[in-house]
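Task 17 of the worksheet. Students: predict the tertiary structure of the chain below and write it out as C-alpha cells. Keep your answer in the requested format; marks are given for formatting as well as content.
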Amino acid sequence: MFTDQTDSKKIVVIDCQTGVAGDMFLGALISLGANINKIVSAIKSLENLNYGYTNVEVCIREDRQKVFKATHIEVTAKAKAEITGQELIKLVEENADTLKLSEKAQRFASKTIRTLVETEMELHGKSMAQVHLHELGQIDTAAEIVGTATALDDLGLFDAKIYSTPAAVGGGTFKFSHGIIASPAPATLAIFKSKNFPIKGGPIEAELATPTGAAILVNVVNEVCSFYPPIVPLGVGYGSGTKEFKELPNVLRITIGQPLGREEMKEEIAVLETNLDDVTGEIVGHSLDKLLRAGAKDVSIIPIFTKKNRPGQILRVIADKADSNRLTRLMLEETGSLGVRILTCERQILNREIHEMDLYIKNLKEKVKVKVVKDGYGTVVHVKPEYEDLKRIAEKTNMPLREITEATTAKAREIYLKK
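Model answer:
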C-alpha cells in the first residue's frame, strides 16, 4: 500500500481502459492506502433527515475480479422516493464544508456534483429545483463524491499531476429508469463532451462508464494520454465495480509515482483575456469570484487605458486547457464582452505540498497548514503558512495578525528548510 504523503512531485495515472465508476474510483483510492476511518466517517455524515437519507451503512471488502484482488465499497441507506438536483448539491457542498476538507477538496466535490446535476438539467430541460434524480438520487452518488474528495485529500493528491487514459465506455444497450438505452448513457456522454474528454468504445458490449465516474474523472484529471508517462511507480490500487464480465475484470487501476527526471514540473495551460471598459466594479468583482469557483487556477484584473483614453481593465484568467471553452463562455456571459483572447502555453511550476504543524502560542496549541514549495531537486525553497489559519489564531489570541504571521513563518522555516 502507498501511504507516504510527503514524497514530492507525485504523478497519478488513472487507467480506465476497462471503464470507470464512482465506486471503482473510491475503491482504488482505498486500495492505495486512503484512511478508511476518515472515508467511512465522511460518508456516514451524509445521514440527513432533511434530504431523506437515514441508516447509512458502508461495507468495504476485498473483491476478486478474475485474477485481480481489488477493493469494493458499497453504501446503502434508507431514502425518500426522490431528491431534487438542488437538494443533492446542497447536501454534498454542506458536508464537504462540515468535514473541514481542504479548499481544493471542497471545490472538487462542488464541481463534480454540479457537473452531474447541470447535465441532467440540460438533458431534461428543467431547472435545478425541478429536475428529479433517479439513479443519481441514491445515496451512493453523494457518498462516492464525498468519499473520493476525502480520500484524495488524505493521500495528498490534489497537488499531484493527474493523468488518465481515454475512458472506455463500452457499447450495446442496457436498461435503466427511463427504459432501454445505448451505451454510453446520455448523461455520461454529455459529461465527457462538456470537458472535451477523450473516450473510446468497447472493448465489450456493456455500460462501462457511469455518469458519476465520468464526473469525477473530468474534474480531477489534468491531462489525457494514451500511454503512461515516464514514472517510477510507488503504489498501485485496484477498485472493483458491481458487475461481472466474462471477457474482462470490472476494475479501475490507479497508479501513483514520481517522474523520472528531476526537472521542474511542466503543465499546459490556457490564458484567457478580455478588455473591459464599460463594466461596473461590482460586476468585475462578481465575475472574478465566479470564475474562481468554476475552477480557474488564477484570475487577475489589470488597469489599462483603452481607446479615447477611457480607463478600463484586462480580465485575465489562467486555466487548465480542458476548461478553456467553459470558462470563456462564463467570461462572455458575466461581463458582456464581445470576445476573449485565448493563448495556449506551457508553464513550469514548482511542486507544492500542504503540511500541518503545531504552533504553541500564549499557552495554546494550534494547528497550522503550511504550503511547502520544492524545486525539481526536492529542495525546499519557500514556506508559507495558510492565511485562514493565521487569521483564526490572531482572532483567538487577540494578537496582531502581523505578529502571528512572523512567528509562524519563522517556526515553519525552522522545521521545513532544514529538510
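Marker's comment: Residues 265-348 form a domain with the Alpha-Beta Plaits fold (CATH 3.30.70.1380). The first strand starts at residue 11 and ends at 15.
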